[in-house]
């Protein structure tokens, strides 16, 4: 995953790739320092892993947001479609239950990402 530090020269945000989810594991398997070049000023920055932070993933936010934004109206549309034609209350009830599905998926994806961020940011080496 990617973790972030600030350029010592221009304060631009620099991303560093790591293969483990906690600072302890990174220190153990990859070493306590990570370096990368600043895309803004080209200065090579060396970071101690305690100075790097995980952030919520934009990808996770976009995917879960799309599921929520598309899934919820789609389910409501299906619900109304089945409520009006063929007037079967059981089918309507089942579909009503499905409204919770996109919301639940959204919640699970967001929660997983927060757990990942917290696991990294909580413990220092
Ligand atoms: Zn810089």
Automatic annotation (TrEMBL):
Keywords: Membrane, Transmembrane, Transmembrane helix. It comes from the Bacteria. The chain crosses the membrane at residues 59-84, 90-109. This is Cxxc_20_cxxc protein. It comes from Lutibacter oricola.
């Amino acid at each position: 995953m990617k973790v972030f530090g600030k350029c010592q020269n221009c304060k631009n945000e620099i991303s560093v790739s790591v293969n483990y989810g906690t600072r302890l594991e990174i220190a153990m398997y990859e070493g306590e320092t990570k370096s990368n070049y600043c895309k803004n000023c080209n200065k090579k920055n060396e970071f101690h892993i305690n100075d790097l932070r995980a952030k919520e993933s934009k990808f996770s936010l976009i995917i879960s947001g799309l599921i929520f934004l598309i899934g919820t109206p789609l389910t409501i549309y299906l619900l109304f479609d089945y409520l009006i034609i063929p007037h079967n209350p059981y089918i309507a009830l089942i579909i009503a239950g499905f409204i919770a599905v996109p919301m639940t998926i959204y919640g699970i994806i967001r929660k997983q990402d927060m757990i990942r961020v917290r696991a990294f940011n909580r413990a220092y080496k």
